[in-house]
Amino acid sequence: MDLITKKSSSTNTNSDPVAFSSSSSPTSKNSFTVSSSSALSSANMYPSFNSRSLSSKNLTASKFQPKIVKGDGGYVLEDVPHFTDYISADDDLRTYPNPLQDNPAYAVVKQYFVDVDDTVAQQTVQTRTSERGIHFRRAGPREKVYFESDEVHACIVTCGGLCPGLNTVIREIVCGLYHMYGATRILGIEGGYRGFYARNTVPLTPKVVNDIHKRGGTILGTSRGGHDTSKIVDSIQDRGINQVYIIGGDGTQKGASVIYEEIKRRGLKVAVVGIPKTIDNDIAIIDRSFGFDTAVEEAQRAINAAHVESESIENGVGLVKLMGRHSGFIAMYATLASRDVDCCLIPESPFYLEGPGGLFEYMEKRLKENGHMVIVIAEGAGQEMLTESMRSMDQQDASGNKLLQDVGLWISQRIKDHFKRRHKMVINLKYIDPTYMIRAVPSNASDNVYCTLLAQSAVHGAMAGYTGFIVGPVNGRHAYIPFYRVTEKQNNVVITDRMWARLLSSTHQPSFSSLNDIVEEKEDEKEEPTTTTKNNLPNGLQNGVVSKDISTAR
């Protein structure tokens, strides 16, 4: 099956999205009427945008309702919200020709505008009897936009921890709005979410952001917490902002989802767009998060240093702690790329220290064979064994993340104590924690290109009137994904997958998991599918969804 598919053809040739509104028909609880957005676009728009003048439709949408569209062959589109879903024709919602069609830089592109029916499949591996499954709306520029260039008043905010590529995303959003759409009013919100109501803003232009991609960190500053929905939306409304770009991890995107819901409740023509950021690569659905490639590359330097130190002395042990609170992707990929690692410990694969098949037994064997070894451990691994500090493990930071103990220092001491008791073997352990060095570096070439695509896709979506979504690649194609799909669960290493088997084959370490643990892991995967259920809907979305069969929807 193709990665990009088109929904069933229909007689409606309008390129704008179709808006669904609840039907009053008593014969069908979930029947809908279809209002063509061409009718919405025929109204006149005032030259200046006044967000206070917009009124919301009388929807039952104070409670979140996913937007599900069904088609033939088990096709399911998990669509993202659009202005036409909650802003009526009476509010002067107009469309305009996309200015990209007159941009000489894009004159060479044969088919630059994305068809409204293009979608991206979540699953690419199919059998002959497989249903088509879940799809997401394809990202990219549309033929019609919902903002004039001089109407756009955008803002950008960065939240959470640092990550390589933050400045690149900021730069490309600004340059994309300026150079592709002629939008010149862009604000940077300083200091994270609380910057909306407690900090100053900074005007952003291509000149201001010209070389910021060469620096680490974020020029806007960042923080955890500070999310006050009412104050944030009040600030957005008072400033006349109509495009909000929010860069952050899953906690930040949960906050972005709440902001979108409040904006929708007030009936404001404001696009809320999330650009997912997590150095751990633990955002669900998307292929990877920006900064991950850079983190893996930089982790190689620490692993190489640990290897040099360990092999230069008798019974040398190099221990490297890498990022990964709940997901061990950085540790796993850095280990596979290095080929110098003898043992990799991640949160998804429990391990034990003492006894047959434990870490200490494996270390003794490895040191006798090679005279040195390198261990990579993710920061979230082994937390359940730090029993002396269990009380502090219940504490959380301002973003709601559980505060973790330093497993690197803990396991270093346990290793030293173990071998000290065994007088026959003296070890020399070197512990390296490159966490803050990795977080602070600028993004590499691969991540720079990726950040550009993310930023431009986000801008295209906002200009086309989409809102309440995050942007990211799904099977190599950029798509618009509803907030709830990336905030409902985290992406984790699957220890019954081939990638983890490749790592075990590379390091020759024991799995530390019993056969029963592996069987239970596989059974859990069968019982809780991560993609679709028998009704072709994601888990938890069987009831209360806004849905329509596309054979009659358009």
What does this structure look like?
ATP binds at residues 161, 224-225, 249-252. Homotetramer. The chain is of the alpha/beta class. The chain folds into 2 domains: 68-289 and 445-487, Rossmann fold, CATH 3.40.50; 292-391 and 402-441 and 494-515, Rossmann fold, CATH 3.40.50. The chain has 16 helices and 21 strands. The strands form 4 sheets. Strands 1, 4, 5, 7, 8, 10, 11, 12, 13, 14, 19, 20 and 21 form a 13-stranded mixed sheet that branches. It has a 4-stranded parallel sheet with strand order 16-17-15-18, sandwiched between helices. Helix 6 links the parallel strand 13 and strand 14. The chain is elongated and about 85 Å long.
CATH architecture of the largest domain: 3-Layer(aba) Sandwich
Q: Which percent range fits the helix content?
A: 25-40%
Overall geometry comes to elongated
The CATH class of the largest domain? Alpha Beta
- Strand content is 15-25%
Count of domain modules: 2
Q: Which residues form runs of ≥5 with pLDDT under 50?
A: 7-62, 530-536, 542-554
Brief characterization of the structure:
It catalyses: beta-D-fructose 6-phosphate + ATP = beta-D-fructose 1,6-bisphosphate + ADP + H(+). The chain is built from 16 helices and 21 strands.
